[in-house]
Amino acid sequence: MKERTLSEWLEYIERVHPKSIELGLDRVLEVKGRLGLSFAGPIVAVAGTNGKGSTCAMLEAILDAAGYRVGLYTSPHLLNYSERVRLNGRPVDAAALCAAFERVEAAREGVPLTYFEFGTLAAWVIFAGLPLDALVLEVGMGGRLDAVNAFDSDCAVLTSIAIDHTDYLGETREAIGREKAGIFRAGRPAIVSDPDPPASVIEHARAIGADLQCIGRDFGYLAGDGQWDFWGRGGRHAGLAVPGLRGAFQLRNASGCLAAFDALAGRLTVGMNEVSKGLASIELPARFQVLPGRPAVVLDVAHNPEAAAVLAQNLADMGRFRQTYAVFGMLRDKDAAGVCQALKGRFDAWFVTALGGERGAGAGRLAEAVRAADAGAEVELFESPRSAFAAATKRAGQNDRIIVFGSFYTVADVMAARAHP
Predict the structure, then answer these.
(1) For residues 251 and 63, what is the distance between their CA atoms, to the nearest angstrom?
(2) Which residues face 138 on adjacent strands?
(3) Which of 150, 203, 229, 371 has the most CB atoms at less than 10 Å from its CB?
(4) How far is 275 from 62, CA to CA, in rounded Å?
(5) Is 242 within 8 Å of 22 (Cβ atoms)?
């Protein structure tokens, strides 16, 4: 039988389960048990609505700077699936992924796994077969019933809790927080970097006996001019390098990382010089990523109202531009009205695009949300992000800027178009 290529495997695992999303741990635990693999080093799991990717990137970069061999599992990817499985910052090669998919396929014995579940188990196969010192696992949309939660973490980090994925997690912060707090473990550190966590998070941590640590109470930071100070159970550390990611909120994420390292001090030793080196080195695509050249182009995967509010603040802090244009596309299960409300008045024109696939929102529906939030706004409709971006680029002058946002899919299509015009 001919071996499948990576693209063939990805097409195959999309068809294995009749639904693209089905929360639950039974299927993953069953196949995980059949694989019979284990990992001896510490595992850090990161959940939350926003800030997960940034937090994971910080943990990875600091561990790498400290000389540890670290594996990172994250999702979704932008251009290549291999971005999801990294070893010390480098994506694994296609051959390793294909071999891991083959092993999962042999072990599942007909158990229907979703695309995310199949990929999570494949990452586990890769990591368990390597001499790594630590793992960082980004939880998917939820927590309690997310495939990543099938793996017991030694430390859980919970970033912000906001309204998103309401069809699966509930319609309130309390309901969503309860689901995401499902990654906590009894007797183990539960680091919460949301400054105002839902009561459900605190209640769940106490109910199971997790070692709850909250920002502002058990750890925190003080921002300075070009540097910052951290305080936590391990003491106070001054003069740290600011993260290489834009936004004052990144200090919350960085504080959560350092609190996690404090909690794991008996198993991972990280010096403050390595912390500064790691934080300063971070480059995370599509998180307010400003591309070189003119007009200025900013890529941001902001896809919910909380992230859109951060985007709005980052735009305000960026300085003055003659005109600012939005290339905007979202999935239909997202709060388009809330996103548009957070960004009203920020753009001189909206280039609204449809997204393909069963979850993509149509351009007409998004245009209605824009006009409802931003009365009188100029709106143009397009069939794809790349066509919307081409129109915005054609119109923009050297002193203008273009903001591409609303979904990983929106940003990915524009990135692909720029890479291969």
Answers:
(1) 18
(2) 46
(3) 150
(4) 5
(5) no
Q: How far apart are CA 252 and CA 248, in angstroms?
A: 8
Rounded to an integer, what distance in angstroms lies between the CA atom of residue 148 and that of residue 56? 14
Is 180 exposed, middle or buried, given 0-12, 13-18 or 19+ CB atoms closer than 10 A? buried
Residue 246 in tokens: 């834009």
Query: DSSP labels for 144-163?
Result: TTSGGGGS--SEEEE----S
pLDDT tens digits, 72-124? 999 999 999 999 999 999 999 999 999 999 999 999 999 999 999 999 999 99
Amino acid in the structure at residue 245: L
pLDDT tens per residue, range 134-161: 999 999 988 898 999 999 999 999 999 9
Helix orientation angle between 250-263 and 272-281, rounded to the nearest 10 degrees? 140
What is the C-alpha to C-alpha distance for residues 102 and 90, in angstroms, rounded to an integer?
A: 22
Question: Cβ(266)–Cβ(154) under 8 Å?
Answer: no
| This prediction's pTM | 0.92
Q: Taking the CB of residue 109, how many other CB atoms lie within 10 A of it?
A: 9
Task: State yes or no: cis peptide before 285, omega within 30 of 0.
Answer: no
Strand order in the sheet with 155-158: 90-91, 85-87, 70-73, 134-138, 43-47, 155-158, 189-192, 211-214
DSSP states of 59-93: HHHHHHHTT--EEEE----SS-GGGGEEETTEEPP
- Per the rule left: phi > 0, alpha: psi between -120 and 50, beta: everything else, 345 is left
Please state, in angstroms and rounded to a whole number, the distance separating the CA atoms of residues 304 and 162. Answer: 8
Alpha-carbon gap, residue 183 to 162, rounded angstroms: 17
DSSP secondary structure, 93-117, as one string: PHHHHHHHHHHHHHHHTT----HHH
Please name the helix (run of DSSP H) or strand (run of DSSP E) that holds residue 368, with its range, or none: helix 363-373
Q: What share of the chain is helix, strand, coil (3-state, %, to 5)?
A: 40, 20, 40
